[in-house]
Q: What sequence folds into this?
């Protein structure tokens, strides 16, 4: 093995990729929840919009949890 081969990084770790995507989705969920709570639009339409944004944030959080579980399963399978 020569010096160039030793310095070349290996393939990315799939579990690390899943954890990174999980963290990003979790951060998006937190920002969406905060934005929905901070919205000053009042009335039935504002409430409906807040509910839609909160539902999207919940779906992001659910997906983030699923990706974290998948990453843990990949780690455990090694």
A:
């Amino acid at each position: 093995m020569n010096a160039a081969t030793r310095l070349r990084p290996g393939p990315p770790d799939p579990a690390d990729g899943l954890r990174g995507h999980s963290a990003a989705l979790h951060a998006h969920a937190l920002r969406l929840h905060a934005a929905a709570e901070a919205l000053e639009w009042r009335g039935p339409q504002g409430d409906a919009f807040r509910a839609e944004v909160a539902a999207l944030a919940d779906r992001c959080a659910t997906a983030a949890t699923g990706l974290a579980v998948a990453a843990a399963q990949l780690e455990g399978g090694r």
In short: The mean pLDDT is 89.
